[in-house]
From TrEMBL:
Residue ranges of domain IrrE N-terminal-like in the record: 51-178
Classification lineage: Bacteria, Bacillati, Bacillota, Clostridia, Lachnospirales
Matches recorded under PANTHER family: ANTITOXIN HIGA1, BLL7220 PROTEIN
Listed InterPro entries: IrrE_HExxH (IPR010359), Rad_response_metalloprotease (IPR052345)
Organism annotation: Anaerostipes butyraticus
Family annotation (Pfam families): Peptidase_M78
Highest taxon listed in the record's lineage: Bacteria
Protein name, as recorded: IrrE N-terminal-like domain-containing protein
Amino acid sequence: MDIERLRKIMEYSNSHRDEIALKVRKFYAFSDMSSDTEVINIMQIARSAFQKKGYLIFEMPLSDKEIGALCYKGDALGYIMLNSSLPRVNINFAVCHELYHVFYQENEFGSKVEFAIDKYYGEEELAANLFAGMLLMPEVSFRSMYKKFKGESENREMHILIRLMNYYQVPYMAVLIRCIELNLLNSDIYLDDLLNIDYQCIRSVFADLWLDESILDATKKDDYVRIQKLVNDLGNRYIENDYINKRTMQKVLRNMEKLYLEIKGES
């Protein structure tokens, strides 16, 4: 990430922090959770919330690694497809990003299918990223853990950030942005050094600190068989009730498989 993009993110955060924080609290209330609660398993919480809104969420490895998620809204049911070709930390962030779009996006989707692409920074995307950061890294908890890890890291800022990344299971850049939002970084830190950390450096520090390196890897989880079974079960029910015929059902399944093979990455 370059410094200009970071500046744009921080300008948006400073202007909209209170507004997005209110939406985070509303989401906690919707999910019957205390706003002081850390979200330990975001997928479990998100799945239930999406279902209440009429969305089904599943994971599939996509060949395009710039896409974090695909969001489709039909007339009756919506789908959130997460790209499991990405590391678990990215998927966690993508889930919360999509929660914002489903619950709070002010403008209607421009098309029935929306792509969550890492390089796109329109206002709704900035809002969704700010929401995701606040939800995954609550302020009180984050300040406390920053202080703890600072004491364990001999003031080495990168080690603090990576310990936070491991603890909250979120992307490195999301941690850095959250630290800047909360004015936690030492004033003498040269920000370019923290912005230009590469993947191999992060992995090396994870290994040195005995952290969970698996969160840096793609899970390659593939829920296609479950989706296929769900569609097949619904189709058989519709056939029994004469809503559709068997030929239509088979066509749907063939088209699903064709699309799946087109977008699927290496397993």
